[in-house]
Design a protein that fits this description.
Helix content of chain A: over 70%
Structural class of chain A: mainly alpha
GO molecular function (chains A, B): DNA-binding transcription factor activity; transcription cis-regulatory region binding
Protein name (chains A, B): Transcriptional regulator, TetR family
Oligomer: homodimer
Largest sheet of chain A: none
CATH architecture of the largest domain in chain A: Orthogonal Bundle
Shape of chain A: elongated
Pfam family, one (chains A, B): TetR_C_7
CATH superfamily of the largest domain in chain A: Tetracycline Repressor, domain 2
Number of helices of chain A: 10
Order of helices and strands of chain A: HHHHHHHHHH
Number of domains of chain A: 2
Radius of gyration of chain A: 21 Å
Distance between the termini of chain A: 74 Å
Number of strands of chain A: 0
Keywords (chains A, B): DNA-binding, Transcription, Transcription regulation
DNA sequence: AAACAGCTAGACGCATGGGTCTAGTTTGAC
DNA sequence: GTCAAACTAGACCCATGCGTCTAGCTGTTT
């Protein structure tokens, strides 16, 4: 056998590893879709990348469109788990609020800038017109729950007197926007690897602005 | 002749209108690329949409890839002109600053939510990996000049004592982020038409947060 | 041992679509 | 009127790629 796919090389041995053909195919599909785009990607290439015969791909996923959906769904679940883990850190009540927010912001940015995250967003943008339901998959499984969870934490911090948000959901959206918006140009839509200190600078600036707007204030006449 | 393309119908008469075959093709290409995606779009379809023979398309644009580049470049120029016009309104020094910013924000959002803008961003995301130079075309011609122009206006407003920005470029990026970030979900990547009062609400919230962070302050100890 | 389910390699049919070419028509310039 | 350039309709070549199928291999179960 001349060559095995990169996913197979990274993952289980492939020949001996009995089970995870399915997962190997999902990983390979993401890699190939991200590299060549969904339309340009060939099922042959996906199979080769997974170290698997083409028929096996069609056994697990009826057709190409279904493979796309499953790939995006699996990736959304993974992204959701990572983001929820980060947002959960806001439950720590002891730390200094600014430091805490900067830490959470930095971690969120690292998730946002992960190759997989960029691949997911690019795939979604590219195929949203052809397959509008992809957006429901991604937002329902990943984006919306994260924003809601963040809004929950901001509301708790407001009740605790450490923040001042009238509309926690809007505040959560703006916090995310301040983080991710400035990243889009710097990351060149995911084609440039942003160094960590640049991430830190963006997170710091975002938290600065956010706290100026939403830090707890004793009173205010408006 | 059974049917003429939608672009020809919208634009010049097509048969009698001598010149703008080229522009008709560019318009048609954008329409078709936006509707079906670059890879799925057929040159036959573009030609038909433009009300033009396929050979004519190849006369004006050597091949499909070149057509994509020209389409994106032309669209970027158009988007740039619209955005610069909006940002230019910040030169009015008389008006109330909050009203002025909200007005500019609203107009920027209208540009951001135009079908063409969404089509441009989706095309860019989809093909950025295949054609990395597309990003230079768009950012160089549209995105970067707009941010710079906005930063210029914010700097002038700071010098005039109406704002307090230490880093006008970062402030400009954050202003745009506060506007566009919350729109992405609401517009469902351009597949949903956002009503005008929703745009107004987002602009209002963005300006609220922005002014809390960057309104002119007499002094500050930190 | 025997039946079975999943996998492999590779050939194959068939549709799609980029790009070319031909032959005939229209348009504008001189 | 005449000529060149651009345009049209449509056939055409050829590469790509989805999805199927066959034939044979491997590991598991009973």
């Amino acid at each position: 056998m001349g060559e095995a796919g990169a996913a197979a090389r990274r993952g289980q041995v492939g020949a001996r590893g009995r089970i995870d053909k399915r997962q190997a195919i999902l990983d390979a599909a993401l890699t190939v879709f991200a590299r060549e785009g969904y339309a340009q990607a060939g099922m042959d290439v996906v199979a080769a990348e997974a170290g698997v015969a083409k028929a096996t791909v069609y056994n697990h996923f009826h057709d190409k469109e279904n493979l796309l959906r499953q790939t995006i769904a699996a990736l959304s679940d993974q992204v959701l788990a990572e983001n929820l883990g980060v947002v959960g850190r806001l439950a720590d009540q002891g730390e200094d609020l600014r430091d805490l927010l900067e830490d959470v912001g930095l971690r969120l940015l690292r998730c946002y800038c992960a190759d997989q995250s960029w691949a997911l967003r690019r795939l979604l943008s590219a195929e949203i017109v052809q397959f509008p339901d992809l957006l429901d998959i991604v937002h329902g499984r990943a984006a919306d729950p994260v924003t809601e969870a963040l809004a929950d934490r901001l509301a708790r911090l407001t009740v605790a007197g450490r923040l001042s948000t009238r509309d926690p959901l809007m505040a959560a959206e703006q916090f995310c926007s301040l983080l991710t918006g400035p990243m889009d140009k710097r990351a060149r839509l995911g084609t440039r690897q942003v160094p960590d200190d640049e991430l830190r600078a963006v997170a710091r600036a975002a938290v600065d602005t956010f706290l100026q707007a939403f830090a707890a204030k004793p009173a205010r006449n408006g």
